[in-house]
């Protein structure tokens, strides 16, 4: 789309006026700055609270008070089958079949649990390929899994880094790393959208390359879910996990999610650590010996659903469902394109946008790497009611999210940057 943007407030407002998703911002609560809503660019870190959460939370508390244990079957959303309420909406968000997704636990926990199924190293095939500079939690998870089986991370973990002087990782370098590791490669595990640069990897291409050498392929979609369009089933991804408190607006520490491809999910022989909630539901309360997993990703559940931690998820996914991921993504490409255009007009400050310029290779986040003055720019934004995020040593991340950010938000951010002296 050859967008013709303009760096004026009038233009920004005219875009908001024709934006059919504009009314969705009314569904969220914004932190206040001088009695006004902040301009919130941190949806990549912690999404805003849907207004409906308070009512739904109160209703859940009421059901608990009213029914006690009977709430498992009599609550408005019966707790016994609580996770079922998410499958359809989650499946749509990540491009999966309904039985391939489940809301459970938290992200890093799910990463560990899924690696216990998909990383089963043997002396010949024990390596894991990942991107350099992955989110620390993923690095720790992978390192400790490798150690658990007695391997040396320096040997067993293959990291693909940006080339000398570059910030982004070349797709062909990932493919080459996979091919070079060949039969020694057990697993490819990559963050779908890199948290620092905002680079969106070619997940279909990576999956195919991993399968070509006989390795499994999994993704951490913390920064991808609710941000970019995903087709996990069609891409033939083996497994994936994500959190719900970033783009999905489901609250701090909100319940995580997991994807297991049907061909594994429906294989009861697939190893997993078992708990009663993953057992066939018809036998769940019979308290018998012998674990017989229910089909699909739900068979990886261990504990009963943390209901109060899933209430906000329920509210937030409703909003996503109403807005529709296709419409959100369309706006996102245009809105982030506008933000990028505005940033390019700021010539007097020493920074570069290190996020890919190709909209296909990024979500909504833009990462600004500063040579100087970064902290000063960040402080100016903060003092003026613009919430962005600072990553040491010198990066400002901003995420204009299509659900609640406006073109005017982007313009105001630009205006403040222009006001910072060289
Ligand atoms: C946010 C994030 C996490 C956080 O993990 P939790 O288990 O939810 O605390 C992990 N990995 C990535 C890539 C993230 O972006």
Automatic annotation (TrEMBL):
Annotated organism of origin: Nemorincola caseinilytica
Known cofactor(s): pyridoxal 5'-phosphate
Family annotation (InterPro entries): Kynureninase (IPR010111), PyrdxlP-dep_Trfase (IPR015424), PyrdxlP-dep_Trfase_major (IPR015421), PyrdxlP-dep_Trfase_small (IPR015422)
Domain of life: Bacteria
One Pfam family of this chain: KYNU_C
Its EC number(s): 3.7.1.3
Modified residues (N6-(pyridoxal phosphate)lysine): 246
HAMAP family noted in UniProt: Kynureninase
Known catalytic reactions: L-kynurenine + H2O = anthranilate + L-alanine + H(+); 3-hydroxy-L-kynurenine + H2O = 3-hydroxyanthranilate + L-alanine + H(+)
Positions annotated to bind pyridoxal 5'-phosphate: 107-108, 135-138, 220, 223, 245, 276, 304
Designated gene of the protein: kynU
Pathway note: Cofactor biosynthesis; NAD(+) biosynthesis; quinolinate from L-kynurenine: step 2/3; Amino-acid degradation; L-kynurenine degradation; L-alanine and anthranilate from L-kynurenine: step 1/1
Protein name from the UniProt record: Kynureninase
Subunit structure: Homodimer.
Family named by the database record: Belongs to the kynureninase family.
Gene3D superfamilies per the UniProt record, alphabetical: Aspartate Aminotransferase, domain 1 (3.90.1150.10), Type I PLP-dependent aspartate aminotransferase-like (Major domain) (3.40.640.10)
Job description of the protein: Catalyzes the cleavage of L-kynurenine (L-Kyn) and L-3-hydroxykynurenine (L-3OHKyn) into anthranilic acid (AA) and 3-hydroxyanthranilic acid (3-OHAA), respectively.
This protein's UniProt keywords: Hydrolase, Pyridine nucleotide biosynthesis, Pyridoxal phosphate
Hydrolase is among the record's keywords: yes
